[in-house]
Amino acid sequence: MTSDRSPRFDDDLLGLDPEDPEARAFAEHLDRMQRVPSCSVEGYIRGVGDFAESANRLRGPHRAAAVGVTVLLLLVAAWVIANAAGFVVATWV
Fold it and tell me: Which residues cross the membrane (predicted)?
């Protein structure tokens, strides 16, 4: 037994081998599913990290969709920043 095993093996996953990589991955998935979302900067960063980890495991059209969503979000952020900078410069000039 390892010290970093999920307590889920004692409750929800009783009878599964905690050393099995698939069982450990499933326990980590259950832990992520029950994590309470935090409405803070740290919570949002953790959510972005979870999205990045999930996107890195994807293959095929699902990965292309994740990359497309990421690019779209970056384009929208760049547009908003450019408009805000233009407004600030136009106000001060």
Answer: 64-90
Q: What's the 3-state SS for the chain?
A: CCCCCCHHHCCCCCCCCCCCHHHHHHHHHHHHHCCCCCCCHHHHHHHHHHHHHHHHHCCCHHHHHHHHHHHHHHHHHHHHHHHHHHHHHHHHC
d(CA 51, CA 33): 13
> How far is CA 10 from each of CA 5, 24, 40, 77, rounded to the nearest angstrom?
10, 13, 31, 44
Find out whether 55 and 66 touch, Cβ atoms under 8 Å: yes
Per-residue pLDDT of the chain (93 residues), as tens digits, is 445 666 666 666 767 777 888 888 888 777 777 776 667 777 777 778 888 888 888 899 999 999 999 999 999 999 999 999 999 999 987
